[in-house]
Amino acid sequence: METVFFLIRHASHDRLGSVLCGRMAGVTLGDRGRAEADALAQRLSAQRLSAVLSSPLERAQETAAPIAARQGLAVTVDPALNEIDLGAWSGKRFEELHGDPAWELWNRARTHARPPAALPPPAGSPTAGSGGESMAEAQTRIAAALDRLRRANPGGRLALVSHADLIKAALAHALGLPLDFHSRFEISPASVSVVVAGDWGLKVHSINEGAA
Ligand SMILES: O=C(O)[C@H](O)COP(=O)(O)O
């Protein structure tokens, strides 16, 4: 039996395009984002969803809430849908990052680049030298979640509210696209990308639907 996944990027917030928010707390939807989330919930009301899952971050849960409410469902928070751990870059303005060689590498070589650690590791720590989460690790996380959710929900139609890079990683996994090509397609705020899963694997039905 097939399981349909509606991969939804959270709606707009006021720091979009100026701050690399990552997992920082307190990033909530503004007026525009709430209007986008309501419009998205209205569009999705034509679908019979069986579950609405969300990243733990506020911007995702606030996007998921009106979608779930319209369907008479509760939002289930799933840590597997969380944003990539961007370590020391979380909360930095994009203008601060420009010119940083590690940031340039992150943008051109996602297959092996890794954000820097948020805090220097203690001296002698076995984690010395480790950083944030690589996109490959995030892809493993979302791919495992899709497989787990598919097995638990045969015939289900699940909305998963997450983040741009997580959705790109999921689509790249389904398409067999190298992560270095992450910028070859767009995942906009409040957009929907549809992936169908079966015993045979994953099939991409659409990408970035409903983008403004
Ligand atoms: O701010 C970030 O973390 C990224 O630039 C975009 O991620 P998002 O999908 O959570 O906005």
Automatic annotation (TrEMBL):
GO terms for molecular function: phosphoglycerate mutase activity. CDD domains: HP_PGM_like. Residues 113-137 are annotated as: Disordered. It comes from the Bacteria. Its EC number is 5.4.2.12. Keywords: Isomerase. This is Phosphoglycerate mutase. It comes from Azospirillum picis.
